[in-house]
Amino acid sequence: MFNEAQLYSPVTRTGDGDVTVHLSDEHPGVRDPEYRARRNAIAALALDYTPGGALPHVAYTQEEQQVWRIVSAELTRKHRRYASAEVLAAAEALALPTDHIPQLDEVSAALAPLSGFRYAPAAGLVPLREFFGSFADRTFHSTQYIRHHSAPLYTPEPDAIHEIIGHANQIASPRFAAVYAEVGAAVGRLSTDDALKFLANVFWFSMEFGVVREGDEIRCYGAGLLSSYGEIEEFRHADLRPLDVGAMGTAVYDITHYQPVLYCAQSISEIEDVIGGFFATMDDDTPERLRQSSAAGAA
Question: To pair with 166 at 20 to 30 A between CA atoms, which of 36, 77, 139, 174?
């Protein structure tokens, strides 16, 4: 199983059409029947979506809107202090609403003129080949549910806050969007799970948890950091290593804890050259070539 699959609550649908989101026993909303019913209903909207059709609208409750307002305000403050200049400029151009949860067509309309990306609904986990592959068409599959109101600054799974405040603010940058597009093109060339997992790992340590040096400071550009109230405070204490796609693709990591090792770029240009360049040339044989090169260097 790919590491990222552990993050999403499984979604099932019976032959009668009933949709159930299976929350873990540790999920803040697992004992809240109303929240569980909401999750099931929102997942059903995504499952009923037909590509090319109208994007489903969620009638968010005031409680859900309040969670968005709280988290938006807190993360906006964190971004001013910790986010990279590239992300801050992209976020200013995107201008996500802070007073309400944007519908996916609202996000798409704001993104399209900036980077050509659009959003599509996801009930939960999208198979990684489909998720990453859709980047080639500048499509991003996004969940629409919101974390439980009892813990607005915490979620055990990616929700709309992660997908929108994290990823949309990132891919509003044409430079980062171009890297995403190279990821999608790479997936079209890959046939093995080994290569796909290697690609997913490099994406994790770059576009999800990437950091970059700006002058005398370390700033974040990864969506996982941009959308996490806790983790964005911790990344400067990580073991920061130079960009190394061979190491990033084979690293063993625990997605349920703050990341102790991160890979730091010296500039946005280095991200484009090293990370974007890797995705632009990757094929099924790349992981083995990098492993052999690393072994030869260590000998």
Answer: 36
Phi, psi of 117 (to 5 degrees): -85, 155
Q: How many CB atoms lie within 10 A of CB 25?
A: 6
Q: Is residue 200 a contact partner of residue 293, using CB atoms and an 8 Å limit?
A: no
Strands 19-21 and 11-13: antiparallel
pLDDT of residue 3: 54
Could you give the residue numbers annotated as active site? 162, 167, 208, 227
Tell me the Cα Rg of the chain: 19
How many angstroms separate the Cα of 293 from the Cα of each of 4, 245, 264? Answer: 27, 12, 21
Could you write out the three-class secondary structure of 120-146? EECCCCCCHHHHHHHHHHCEEEECCCC
**Cα 192 to Cα 266: distance, rounded to the nearest angstrom:** 32
Distances (CA, A) of 3 to 64, 80, 197, 204, 220: 28, 30, 9, 10, 22
Per the CB < 8 A criterion, the answer to whether 172 and 91 are in contact is yes
CA distance linking residue 28 with residue 124, whole number of Å:
17
- Fill in the DSSP letter of residue 154: -
Residue 6 has a pLDDT of: 63
Low-confidence ranges of the chain (pLDDT < 50): 1-2
Indicate the helix (H) or strand (E) that contains 261. strand 261-265
- Find where tokens 């990222």 sit: 4
